Structure formats: structure tokens, C-alpha cells
Amino acid sequence: MGEAAKAVEEMLECLLPKPHGLHGRIHEAMRYATFAGGKRLRPFLVLHSAGLFAVNRQGALRAAAAIEVLHTYSLVHDDLPCMDDDDLRRGRPTAHKAFDEATAVLAGDALLTIAFEILAHEETHASAEVRCRLIARLAEAAGSNGMIGGQMIDMVAAESAFGADDVILLQRLKTGQLFEFACEAGPILGQAGERHRGRLRDYARDMGLVFQITDDLLDVTSTAEKTGKAVGKDKDHGKATLVSIYGVDGARREAATIADRAVAALDGYGPEADELRALPPFLLDRET
Amino acid sequence: MGEAAKAVEEMLECLLPKPHGLHGRIHEAMRYATFAGGKRLRPFLVLHSAGLFAVNRQGALRAAAAIEVLHTYSLVHDDLPCMDDDDLRRGRPTAHKAFDEATAVLAGDALLTIAFEILAHEETHASAEVRCRLIARLAEAAGSNGMIGGQMIDMVAAESAFGADDVILLQRLKTGQLFEFACEAGPILGQAGERHRGRLRDYARDMGLVFQITDDLLDVTSTAEKTGKAVGKDKDHGKATLVSIYGVDGARREAATIADRAVAALDGYGPEADELRALPPFLLDRET
């Protein structure tokens, strides 16, 4: 995963504006939030889903960069005092702490905007049809019936008696939709047709659930030192998670079952899908 | 202008999701902010710049809707407590007052996102190249070197000794860039070539300055009752404007000169440009 991270960080370095002019502070904040040493999981998924379809490397890296800045915007806005009110992210002060709230709102807006600018550029793919398909799919995944809808549900979750189905819906929107985009970006860039998109979407959906359950497990069982962010927040906020519903052991078992299903979704591919196959079991064992 | 407003509002009614599901609150907030009876000036510019190039009505209306939701997002975020902290917009509570801050942040994000989704859809234009050109231009106009850059400068303006050139730069980014996009959308949709884009950009730049100067004049000379928003805020916040630099009469004279120049930029067009020609003088006389 380190290799994908390095490649996408070089691309991000090229694509994000260098600080300049009276408004240089906005560029600084965009870069501060982006270059914070994350796992770059979504770029990893874009690059390896693209690897199944002989996609041009430059195009895959640009799509990977686009989803990473979009993911970063969602973290910056999520951390705001009026949202999750987090002071710490990946072991560093969050954007509104390092800068100020207004700059963090604007930097998030600018990162969301540049995601679409990156995809629209002809260097992403020679076919404008393909670029429009990526843009439409990303907007759908990130919009009010996707990620943002999930964040909205998350906000009302603390006051609601959520069951397992509601929690799964919440996560499929809040984090799952961007994973789905990341895994569909490969077949879209490779113009590979709906059957391939469907398989990779199935993989992404289950992989995303494993990611979320293990994230919730870490919130219960890990320390802020290890994860680089505050832990124990779900319980403090009274939020239902699959861990609070199934218990720690039950959630671990559920995650293992779903991880197997995610791997099985890739049965039609050869060894070029091995990195994607390795991810769900890797997530089961993660400590950060 | 009322006719353009009515047509774009019908399109927005179709394009914005109806409230549904556990996340229906996000759709309600998006609609609350959008259907607030604004002047729909940017859609007017899109529709009339499109009118110069025999553009398909459906496509022009979709581009008009896209810029209006993008403009609405910028108002929602601008009104937040950490930004301009406004309680009143178009005579009604602002989104974070009618809902809450977190919902307002998310609704702004969702409106920005759907702007690109609308443009990417094939109903906007049969050519995906044209759709990508619109998306790239809108992202540039709205991004960190466009509108958001202008808002960033605006935030530091209160503490800076800004001259007329700095204030003009600020306005060209903060409000001018979206006007430029609106006026360029016609020639882009009509595949009319750079010469036409250049003319309409010149018109937009000057029209935008007239808009801004007359807005600043209203802030000094009008009442909250007439404008539907708080007045006297620029002075309270110590912000430099062309009115504070040139004085009320000097700013009025400057606006009249720029308005003439805006009209002259349209010299190459026939009577189909008359609505655009009428706008700068209309702005000089506006009371809201």
C-alpha cells in the first residue's frame, strides 16, 4: 500500500496549487489537510482496480488523486466544531485548529471543487465520455444520496434507536459510496462494461463494511496513541455501531464473514487482483 | 429577469432531490436555501449568453441551474457563524438558523456537488467534450484561485490596508468569476470559439464590478427592510470597498463608467444581446 501512497502523493504535489497571492492561505490549508500521511486506501483501490483493465497509469493516478482530495475535504468538514468537533487527526491538529474554522470550511470546499477539475481534464482520459462518467459517478457517490446523506444520518443517529440494518445503510452511504467509486474507477477508465463494474462494486461494498466494522472496533479497543485520533467517541456520543449492537466478538465474526464474501466477489479475475484480495483480511488484523 | 427566474426555478425543482429516507433533512435544507426567491442573476446571464448562439434551451437551463446551486452553496457557507455570521438572507433566517450549523455545512457541500453532477449529465449537451469544458471552467471559477480565493482574501481584508487594485482583485475573484462562467456558458454550449468567449468574459468582468459597487453602495445607503439582509456590515467589519475608497459619489461615477464599458463589449452582437446590454444600467438604479 505504501507504493500506491507514494505515487499518488507525487501526483497530488503536482495537482494542488502552490501557495501564492493574497489568498495563499487557502492553498496552505488545502495542502496541510492533504499531506497528513494517511493510508491512501482509496487511491490504492483506484490503482488496483485500474490494474485489472490495462488502464493508462497517468489517468489512474489522476482519478486516485481526485478521490483522495474529495476524501480529505470530507474529513476537514467532519472535524469542524459544529460536526464531530475533533482536535486531532492522524496525530496532528485538525485543519480548523491549525488554521481557523473559516479557512477550514473554505479549504474543504476548494478540495471538493478541485476533485472535479482534476477529473474533467483531458489528461485523465482521452475520451470525454469517460471523464463525464467518472464525474457523474463521483458526484453521485459523494452527494446528498451518497456520502453526505450518510453524514446526515450519522448526525441524527445519536438520537435514534438504530438497528443493524440502519447502521449498515448509514455506513454504506457515509464511507461505502466512496469505496465503491474507487473500485469502479478502474472499469470506468478501462471502458470495461457493467458486469465488471458490478463485481467491483460488490467487492467495494463488502470491503467497506469490513473497514467500518474494524474502525468501530478500534474505537472501542485501541488507544489515541496508536490510532492518532480520539477513541471511545462513538460510545460517548451514544452512537449505534455494529459493535454496540453485536458486541466486540460478534462484530469480529461478522467482519470475518463479510471479508470472505468480498474476496469471493473477485473470483473471475487472475493474480492481477491479488492485492485487492489481500485487503479485507489485512483490515481484519489492523491496529490503526 | 422574472421570466429567466421562473424557468430556472422549474428546472431546479426537477433537479434537486425530493426529501426522502433517513437523510431527508439534507434535501430539505438544500431546497430551503435554493428556493428563497433570489434575483437569479447568474441564470439570467447563462440563458441570455446562450441566446446569442442558438443553444438548446434544455442545456442552457441545466447550466443555469448548475450555477445557481453553486452560488447558493457559497451563500450558505458564507453565512455560517465562522464566516460572515449572518442570521438573515433574502428576508428569511439563513440555513444554519433555520436548520443548524452542521446541516448548513452539509447542505452547502451537497449543492456544490450536485452542480457538477448536473453539468456531467448528457442532457446538458450531446457532446461530452462540451460538458467537460463547462465542468472544468466552473471548477476553475469556483475554486481556490477563483471564488474561494476571493473569499479567503475577503477574510484577511479587514486587517489589511487594501487599495483600490486589491479590492478590485478581491471582487473579480469573489463574485466576478462566477459571472464570467455564467456569460461564457453560452459560447461554450454553442461551441462558438475563443473570440466570443473573450467578449463575453469582458462583459461579465465589468458587469460584475458594477454589481459589486452597487451592492456596496446599498450596504451604505439602504435599509435592511429594503434589501432583506443586514446593512452597514462592511463598515462595521472595517472592510475596504470601492465605496470606502472613492466615497459614495465617486463610486457611483466609477460604476457608471464601467457600466458603459460593459455594454460596449457587446458591440459585435445584434438585438439578441439587448437584454444583456440593459443589465448594467439596470444595476446602477437598483434598490435591492
Give me the secondary-structure topology.
2 copies of one chain form a homodimer.
Chain A lengths: L1 H14 L8 H11 L6 H10 L6 H22 L9 E2 L2 E2 L1 H4 L2 H20 L7 H15 L4 H11 L6 H26 L4 H28 L2 H4 L5 H4 L5 H23 L9 H11 L4
Antiparallel strand pairs in A: 1-2
Task: Please give the oligomerization state of what you see.
Answer: homodimer
CATH class of chain A: Mainly Alpha
Order of strands, widest sheet of chain A: 1-2
CATH architecture of chain A: Orthogonal Bundle
- Count of helical regions of chain A: 14
Using only CA atoms, what is the Rg of chain A? 18 Å
What is the CATH superfamily label of chain A?
A: Farnesyl Diphosphate Synthase
* Shape type of chain A: globular
**Which chains have the largest interface?**
A-B, 56 and 56 residues
Note the gap between the termini of chain A: 14 Å
User: How many structural units, i.e. domains of chain A?
Assistant: 1
What's the helix-strand series of chain A? HHHHEEHHHHHHHHHH
